[in-house]
Amino acid sequence: MTHSMRTDTYPDDRGDWQDSAVRYALLPLRIFLGVTFVYAGLDKLTDSAFMKEAGSGSIGDMMRAVRDSSAIPALVDLSLKNPVGFGYAIALGELAVGIGTLLGLLARLAALGGALISLSLWLTVSWASDPYYYGNDLAYLMAWIPLVLAGAPLLSVDAALRARRRRRRGEYR
Fold it and tell me: Which of 46, 61, 51, 173 is nearest to 125 (CA)?
Protein backbone atom coordinates (compact mmCIF):
# COMPACT_ATOMS: atom_id res chain seq x y z
CA MET A 1 0.00 0.00 0.00
CA THR A 2 1.32 3.39 -0.93
CA HIS A 3 0.79 6.42 1.22
CA SER A 4 0.80 9.89 -0.16
CA MET A 5 0.33 13.32 1.29
CA ARG A 6 -2.09 15.74 -0.24
CA THR A 7 -0.45 19.08 -0.74
CA ASP A 8 -3.60 20.90 -1.82
CA THR A 9 -5.17 21.14 1.63
CA TYR A 10 -4.09 22.85 4.83
CA PRO A 11 -4.99 21.46 8.26
CA ASP A 12 -5.50 24.90 9.79
CA ASP A 13 -7.78 26.29 7.01
CA ARG A 14 -5.20 28.84 5.90
CA GLY A 15 -5.35 27.43 2.40
CA ASP A 16 -8.39 29.40 1.29
CA TRP A 17 -6.89 32.87 1.64
CA GLN A 18 -3.41 31.70 0.64
CA ASP A 19 -4.74 30.05 -2.50
CA SER A 20 -6.72 33.18 -3.34
CA ALA A 21 -3.68 35.37 -2.72
CA VAL A 22 -1.58 33.23 -5.04
CA ARG A 23 -4.27 33.18 -7.76
CA TYR A 24 -4.77 36.95 -7.65
CA ALA A 25 -1.14 37.95 -7.04
CA LEU A 26 -0.52 39.28 -10.56
CA LEU A 27 -3.81 41.15 -10.86
CA PRO A 28 -2.58 44.39 -9.18
CA LEU A 29 0.49 44.38 -11.44
CA ARG A 30 -1.68 43.77 -14.49
CA ILE A 31 -4.00 46.64 -13.57
CA PHE A 32 -1.13 49.01 -12.83
CA LEU A 33 0.75 48.28 -16.05
CA GLY A 34 -2.42 48.29 -18.14
CA VAL A 35 -3.65 51.62 -16.80
CA THR A 36 -0.17 53.15 -17.01
CA PHE A 37 0.34 52.12 -20.64
CA VAL A 38 -3.16 53.25 -21.69
CA TYR A 39 -2.49 56.59 -20.00
CA ALA A 40 0.97 56.90 -21.59
CA GLY A 41 -0.40 56.17 -25.05
CA LEU A 42 -3.31 58.60 -24.71
CA ASP A 43 -1.03 61.25 -23.22
CA LYS A 44 1.27 61.08 -26.24
CA LEU A 45 -1.62 61.05 -28.73
CA THR A 46 -3.28 64.10 -27.18
CA ASP A 47 -0.12 66.16 -26.61
CA SER A 48 0.14 68.48 -29.60
CA ALA A 49 3.76 69.36 -28.79
CA PHE A 50 4.90 65.71 -28.57
CA MET A 51 3.84 64.62 -32.04
CA LYS A 52 6.10 67.04 -33.88
CA GLU A 53 9.43 66.65 -35.62
CA ALA A 54 10.95 69.60 -33.75
CA GLY A 55 10.12 72.05 -31.01
CA SER A 56 9.91 72.11 -27.25
CA GLY A 57 8.57 68.79 -25.93
CA SER A 58 8.60 67.11 -29.34
CA ILE A 59 9.51 63.49 -29.99
CA GLY A 60 12.08 64.65 -32.53
CA ASP A 61 13.93 66.92 -30.08
CA MET A 62 13.78 64.26 -27.36
CA MET A 63 15.31 61.62 -29.65
CA ARG A 64 18.03 64.01 -30.83
CA ALA A 65 18.83 64.84 -27.18
CA VAL A 66 19.31 61.19 -26.19
CA ARG A 67 21.04 60.00 -29.34
CA ASP A 68 24.64 60.26 -28.16
CA SER A 69 23.95 58.86 -24.68
CA SER A 70 21.83 55.88 -25.73
CA ALA A 71 23.07 52.29 -25.70
CA ILE A 72 22.02 51.83 -29.33
CA PRO A 73 22.42 55.10 -31.26
CA ALA A 74 21.44 53.29 -34.48
CA LEU A 75 17.98 52.67 -33.01
CA VAL A 76 17.62 56.37 -32.28
CA ASP A 77 18.85 57.18 -35.81
CA LEU A 78 16.14 54.89 -37.17
CA SER A 79 13.49 56.77 -35.17
CA LEU A 80 14.86 60.10 -36.40
CA LYS A 81 14.14 59.16 -40.02
CA ASN A 82 10.47 59.76 -39.17
CA PRO A 83 10.10 60.98 -35.59
CA VAL A 84 6.37 61.64 -35.86
CA GLY A 85 5.73 58.15 -37.25
CA PHE A 86 7.87 56.69 -34.48
CA GLY A 87 5.93 58.72 -31.91
CA TYR A 88 2.62 57.38 -33.24
CA ALA A 89 4.00 53.83 -33.30
CA ILE A 90 5.06 54.06 -29.64
CA ALA A 91 1.80 55.72 -28.57
CA LEU A 92 -0.43 53.24 -30.41
CA GLY A 93 1.74 50.37 -29.20
CA GLU A 94 1.38 51.53 -25.59
CA LEU A 95 -2.37 51.86 -26.05
CA ALA A 96 -2.71 48.37 -27.56
CA VAL A 97 -0.51 46.84 -24.85
CA GLY A 98 -2.45 48.60 -22.10
CA ILE A 99 -5.86 47.58 -23.40
CA GLY A 100 -4.74 43.99 -24.03
CA THR A 101 -3.29 43.81 -20.53
CA LEU A 102 -6.37 45.25 -18.83
CA LEU A 103 -8.76 42.98 -20.72
CA GLY A 104 -6.46 39.99 -20.53
CA LEU A 105 -6.77 39.60 -24.30
CA LEU A 106 -3.72 37.87 -25.77
CA ALA A 107 -2.20 38.75 -22.42
CA ARG A 108 1.21 37.15 -22.94
CA LEU A 109 1.58 38.84 -26.31
CA ALA A 110 0.50 42.18 -24.83
CA ALA A 111 3.00 41.75 -21.98
CA LEU A 112 5.74 40.88 -24.47
CA GLY A 113 4.88 44.06 -26.38
CA GLY A 114 5.07 46.05 -23.14
CA ALA A 115 8.42 44.48 -22.32
CA LEU A 116 9.78 45.31 -25.78
CA ILE A 117 8.58 48.91 -25.56
CA SER A 118 10.16 49.23 -22.11
CA LEU A 119 13.39 47.62 -23.34
CA SER A 120 13.62 49.98 -26.32
CA LEU A 121 12.97 53.02 -24.11
CA TRP A 122 15.54 51.81 -21.56
CA LEU A 123 18.20 51.31 -24.24
CA THR A 124 17.54 54.73 -25.75
CA VAL A 125 15.82 57.34 -23.59
CA SER A 126 16.76 56.30 -20.04
CA TRP A 127 20.07 54.51 -20.69
CA ALA A 128 22.15 57.42 -19.39
CA SER A 129 20.31 57.59 -16.05
CA ASP A 130 22.91 57.52 -13.31
CA PRO A 131 22.52 55.64 -11.09
CA TYR A 132 20.64 53.20 -13.31
CA TYR A 133 17.65 52.90 -10.95
CA TYR A 134 16.68 56.53 -11.59
CA GLY A 135 15.46 55.47 -15.03
CA ASN A 136 12.06 53.82 -14.69
CA ASP A 137 12.07 51.92 -18.00
CA LEU A 138 14.22 49.12 -16.59
CA ALA A 139 11.77 48.65 -13.70
CA TYR A 140 8.86 48.51 -16.19
CA LEU A 141 10.76 45.91 -18.22
CA MET A 142 11.19 43.74 -15.12
CA ALA A 143 7.53 44.23 -14.16
CA TRP A 144 6.38 42.88 -17.53
CA ILE A 145 8.31 39.61 -17.22
CA PRO A 146 5.91 37.87 -14.76
CA LEU A 147 3.01 38.70 -17.07
CA VAL A 148 4.91 37.38 -20.09
CA LEU A 149 5.43 34.11 -18.19
CA ALA A 150 2.01 33.75 -16.55
CA GLY A 151 -0.36 35.63 -18.83
CA ALA A 152 -3.72 36.57 -17.33
CA PRO A 153 -5.16 33.38 -15.83
CA LEU A 154 -8.02 35.11 -13.99
CA LEU A 155 -10.57 37.80 -14.81
CA SER A 156 -9.54 37.93 -18.45
CA VAL A 157 -10.81 37.32 -21.95
CA ASP A 158 -8.09 34.68 -22.33
CA ALA A 159 -9.42 32.76 -19.29
CA ALA A 160 -13.00 32.99 -20.57
CA LEU A 161 -11.97 31.68 -23.99
CA ARG A 162 -9.95 28.89 -22.37
CA ALA A 163 -12.95 27.87 -20.23
CA ARG A 164 -15.21 27.93 -23.28
CA ARG A 165 -12.84 25.64 -25.21
CA ARG A 166 -12.75 23.23 -22.26
CA ARG A 167 -16.54 23.13 -22.04
CA ARG A 168 -16.73 22.33 -25.74
CA ARG A 169 -14.28 19.47 -25.31
CA GLY A 170 -16.16 18.20 -22.29
CA GLU A 171 -13.49 19.12 -19.75
CA TYR A 172 -14.59 20.77 -16.55
CA ARG A 173 -11.35 21.93 -14.99
Answer: 61
